[in-house]
Amino acid sequence: MSLKDCKAKSPYSFQPLWNRYSEKFDTHFNSVLKILEQRFSAYPSLHNAWGSLRSYVANKGKRVRPQLFLSSYDLFAEDEGYITEGILDVACALELFHTFALIHDDIIDESHSRRGEPTLHVRLHQEKSIQDSQNCENLAIIFGDILFGYAMECFVSPKLPSYFATRALRYFLRIAQDTGVGQAIEIANLEQTLAEVSEREILDTYYLKTTRYTIEGPVVIGAIMAGAQQSILSEIRYFTQPLGLAFQIENDLHELEQIDQAKPTLAYDLRSGVKTYLLKCFYDALNGKDKLILENCLRPGGTADPLHQINRLLRKTTVKKNLQAMTVRFFKESKERLHESTMSPVKKQQLQALIDFLSKNSHHSESSSNGDYRI
Questions:
Q1: Pairing between strand 113-114 and 117-118?
Q2: How many angstroms separate the Cα of 35 from the Cα of each of 104, 112, 232?
Q3: Predicted structure pTM score
Q4: Residue 112 in 3-state DSSP?
């Protein structure tokens, strides 16, 4: 049963649709990995390393992007969303690109775990696939590039109508570039103080790295593949903009929970000095002396227990409460923008179910058995 088959009653439920597709997606994703394995098997020197890569890729997360893509396609397709192998190829492309991004992020962040398991460069070293740790990082980067290349190949599957596939690929490549720009801005801002970084630029990185990459992109690409008109694509981008901001700010607030729950090593952005919107609002709410203390906490080696100090300062302000209220407003604004669209009432209700789903799952970082909450 697709979303179109749901009776016109409220509330709609977004999750059951993915439950129907998840097994089919998993099967197809495994077939994609087998194709990659066949390519690697031609080179004996990569046998062990492929095993490490496959284990890393198989350690799946929430798969939010395939969920949103397949659900969007199902909603907008005239044939009631029949999911072909070509459409599953595109869903796999989104997941492979995400895996590529995670591999590179783990090296940039010098991370040792991902979803409760070793990161790829650490896994390569632990499993003796490669002996030298620097070579492990280098190989992980290349493996990520290979996954990116294969993701692009999935978009040009002969099983897809070429016109829609070309439009979707062009849109996806722009998303990929914007994601990189957002990451580049975030890294460049590590060199800046909170006083020097503008609130506008931080929100721009949220739009580039979260709204477009995690939410807007998969939903728009699903609609493109379903043959939706340009006006519909514009309306999707419009209502997903505040949705992405709410999603990311919720994640910032989630980092504070890690401190409260005595899990400070999980608060990556706070530990590494990433200029988040939370920190910027926090900084602006402090007096001159406390501003200096906060900046010192964010400076490498600046204080012995920076997260404890940050938490102590935070309790002097209403920033946490204000941002919690802001996310509620953003989720509400997303629904209001959706309501203004020219889509049918049924489609609006179904997309509102998507908003409700994301609002309830807005900690987009992945939880796991050992408490690694990063995506």
A1: antiparallel
A2: 23, 28, 35
A3: 0.88
A4: coil
